[in-house]
Amino acid sequence: MGSNFSKPYQSQLIREQGFAVPETLITNDPDFVREFLKQHKRVIYKSISGIRSIVQTLEEGDLKRLDAIRWCPTQFQQFVEGTNVRVHTVDTKVFATAVSTDTTDYRYAYRQGGETELKAIELPDELASRCIGLSRALGLVFAGIDLKITPDEQVFCFEVNPCPAFSYYEANTGQPIARALVGYLAGTG
Length: 189
Description:
Layout: H1 7-16, E1 24-27, H2 30-40, E2 43-46, E3 56-57, H3 60-63, E4 74-78, E5 83-90, E6 93-101, E7 116-121, H4 125-137, E8 142-149, E9 155-161, H5 167-173, H6 177-186
Antiparallel strand pairs: 1-4, 2-3, 2-4, 5-6, 5-8, 6-7, 8-9
């Protein structure tokens, strides 16, 4: 569980399991951020803590207040085009959800006047196996894995949540995530 408290450490473990990780900058130096933005054109930012934060796109207006990060190290990543996929693993079971949205962080689309559509999908066997392997490498029986699959089929992994919310996905897709979790805990599934 400790890997969620250090995003850089978790990124290293994610790479070791064969997933791509977006180019990332963790800094409190505004000049480094400006240079990173020149290199990538479109950049997102989020907290480096293990506590939930809202992912946002770095906009022109944000540059005016960039000096404030001197007191708050922040994680910046290249924006990755593609389809968001949330994967829940419960032991050897995999539940994947494709997420279509018109916002940067689909979890907060309603706050930005956006929409989100969730659809249960089947992952290719190789990718499902990698997700199970990643969960196991992190010592997790139950995990929420945030992926993005690019138009050319490259799979990026942003993070693995060791205590994922799942009811939102289950309610919108009908996937039996709770049943799988209860079955595992009861020793029947």
